[in-house]
């Protein structure tokens, strides 16, 4: 797995804008947010179903709560962006294959 490439994709989505209390007030997407979501989707499609290293790394970095949910919440005017964020969520929530090596660890990463 290309961890550096995955990192660039994930950090290139955008960032949350917060008020002085640390509450999220908006999400600032980058110019390449949509392209990065599509690339993330490609990474997830090619993820090894036995060990799922891309899935685990995306979960470790909390991309769902840091980026995907805020994109859906704050970027509703960009339908294509929201649709691709939902597609990534769908891939992340697909059932774990029964033949997978470490089912309990994958569940732990997802709920972590």
SSE layout and pairings?
Elements: H1 3-11, E1 14-18, E2 24-29, H2 33-45, H3 53-60, H4 63-74, H5 79-92, H6 103-111
Antiparallel strand pairs: 1-2
Helix pairs in contact: 2-5, 3-6, 4-5
Description:
The chain has 112 residues and is mainly alpha-helical. The two termini are 21 Å apart. The radius of gyration is 14 Å and the shape is globular. Helix 2 packs parallel to helix 5, helix 3 (53-60) runs parallel beside helix 6 (103-111) and helix 4 (63-74) packs antiparallel against helix 5. The protein is built from six helices and two strands, in the order H-E-E-H-H-H-H-H. The chain has a two-stranded antiparallel ribbon with strand order 1-2. The model has no long low-confidence stretch (mean pLDDT 91). It has helices at residues 3-11, 33-45, 53-60, 63-74, 79-92, 103-111; strands spanning 14-18, 24-29.
């Amino acid at each position: 797995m290309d961890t550096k490439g995955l990192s660039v994709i994930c950090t290139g989505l955008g960032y949350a804008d917060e008020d002085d209390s640390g509450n999220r007030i908006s999400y600032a997407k980058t110019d390449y947010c949509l392209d990065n979501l599509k690339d993330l989707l490609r990474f997830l499609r090619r993820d090894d179903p036995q060990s799922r290293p891309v899935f685990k790394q995306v979960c470790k970095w909390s991309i769902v709560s840091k980026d995907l949910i805020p994109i859906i919440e704050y970027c509703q005017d960009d339908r294509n962006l929201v649709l691709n964020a939902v597609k990534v969520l769908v891939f992340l929530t697909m059932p774990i294959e029964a033949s997978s090596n470490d089912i309990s660890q994958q569940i732990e990463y997802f709920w972590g």
